[in-house]
Amino acid sequence: MHVTMKQIAQELGVSRVAVSHVINGREDQLSEATCQRIRKALEKYDYQPNALVRGLQNKKTGVIGVIVPAVRVSFFPDILNSLEQLASASGYQCLLAQSHSNHDKLMKGIDTFRQHRVDGMIICPDDAFGHKAYYKQLVKRKLPIVFLDCGYEGIDVPLVVNDNEACGYLATMHLLELGHTHIGCLRGTPDGMILEQRYAGYCKAMKKVLGKVNPHCVVQRPHWRTPVEQMIRQLFDTNPKLTAMVCMTDQDALRAMHVANEFGMRVPDDLSITGCANLDFAELVSPGLTTIDQKPDVIAQEAWRLLEEKIKNPKCTTKRVRVSPELIVRQSTAPLEK
Questions:
Q1: Residue 91 lies in a domain
Q2: Do 289 and 301 lie in a common domain?
Q3: pLDDT value of residue 310
Q4: pTM, rounded to two decimals
Q5: What integer pLDDT is reported at residue 142 of this predicted model?
Q6: Which domain holds residue 39?
Q7: What pLDDT sits at residue 48?
Q8: Could you write out the three-class secondary structure of the chain?
Q9: Residue 114 pLDDT more than 60?
Q10: Does residue 337 sit within a domain?
């Protein structure tokens, strides 16, 4: 049963203000005997202040909301760990929600944060073009917000993103420099912004070195429910000349390794493969996965910096930060033997 300050004050025969003094560290306002009686009562009832009420009174809760697609295998756990440490160092706690790439769940998560009167939010928006209007309405509510990993043109919100085009470009250039020209690419879904940006990087590198993109080397996932393995098998079936493959995520690269094995192809002897994210398993699989490090710690630091700035000064200039990725070369890629 939750006991209120008023009930404790009535039981002890003291004022509610006296109890408040002890709770809020103003014990010099009272006698030591009175303080001891109040402290014992607070301990007896395991009294916990109502953070929501206190937040309404102070117009600050000391809590921020963070919503990401998922905390399963991805680079988001690294971002969340860094954000939690940064927030804690500044006296904030984090509330976490997962959208599972579902817009309705994302909206419910944001509504929950607003109901708990968080001081600000770091949101990874839907990776789709169709929900721009929702975010425009959200901005009008004047709550400090920072977008993470994905943003929309024309929406005045601080943004921290990885340079996704550079991710695709670095991976593809690496394979081209190894002598590969028949380089397969597994695109994301048509409405997905992030993977399409990575695909644009693939195209940029291919056009720079070869002058064109061979459409027969590219397969696009029609829907996020479509099994990735199905698309990879389709690519291998129709393109026996492929000697390398650019995958837009580390998970897809791992799946490509398994499918390559089904086809009797050895990595990297017969097929070089790159991923993107530099997840923990990337250096543990055999062969170790050549991938792109998206710098999650840097992303978290920049996101927290922008949110804290927005909390302190809601009228500050909106900033957009693009974090440069880094190529990590391991054993899943090798020079083309001619």
A1: yes
A2: no
A3: 92
A4: 0.79
A5: 81
A6: 5-49
A7: 67
A8: CCCCHHHHHHHHCCCHHHHHHHHCCCHHHCCHHHHHHHHHHHHHCCCCCCHHHHHHHHCCCCEEEEEECCCCCCCHHHHHHHHHHHHHHCCCEEEEEECCCCHHHHHHHHHHHHHCCCCEEEECCCCCHHHHHHHHHHHCCCCCEEEECCCCCCCCCCEEEECHHHHHHHHHHHHHHCCCCCEEEEECCCCCHHHHHHHHHHHHHHHHHHCCCCHHHEEECCCCCCCHHHHHHHHHHHCCCCCEEEECCHHHHHHHHHHHHHCCCCCCCCCEEECCECCHHHHCCCCCCEEEECCHHHHHHHHHHHHHHHHHCCCCCCCEEEECCEEECCCCCCCCCC
A9: yes
A10: no
